[in-house]
Every structure is written in C-alpha cells, then in structure tokens.
Amino acid sequence: MQMLYESDTFSVLQIHANAPEESAPAPSVPELARHGFEIVDKRSNKEVYLDGSWAEMFQQRLSAWAQNTPTQEEVEDTLEGYSGLAHTPVSLH
Q1: Would you say the C-alpha torsion 22, 32, 17, 49 has a positive or negative sign?
Q2: Is residue 19's pLDDT more than 60?
Q3: Closest to 49 measured CA to CA, from 7, 12, 1
Q4: How far apart are the first and last CA of the chain?
C-alpha cells in the first residue's frame, strides 16, 4: 500500500493486493496482477476502489500528471469526479 495523495478533502492509496514478497519464489502458475486505487472523500466519509480498466485509466491520469504537474485544484476536481462513484462508507477494519 502506498499513499499517493493526501489533502483535507481527499486521500488516494495505491494498493497491490497480491504483490509477492521479494523473497518469495516465482509462482508455478501465472497470476493476474491485482492492484488498484482507493479514493477516500473525507467530506462525505465515503470511499471508492478502482481496479481493472478503471485503475488503468486512473494510472494513465497519474502518468500524465507526472509529466505535467497539475495544480491542487485540478487534482481535487478530478478526484471529485471519481468520488461520485463512491457508495461505501469508510469503516475501520
């Protein structure tokens, strides 16, 4: 898990769900890499998890931001668009 963004209104985590340990032997059967992004809207206290094609699209956005650093307003506007998908209240595990 890696924190990518943190503000008063949003946080974004990149999650590697089945990332192997560095010392682990290579699997005998190929595994589909499972990773995604968790976006938490702190205002509504809801979260959305992006995986699959949604995660790929979000990764492309992050790559574009790495080349052309966005303003905080641009980041927040983008995250607000994704937060509209959030239906799950944040809960502690």
Answers
A1: positive
A2: no
A3: 12
A4: 15
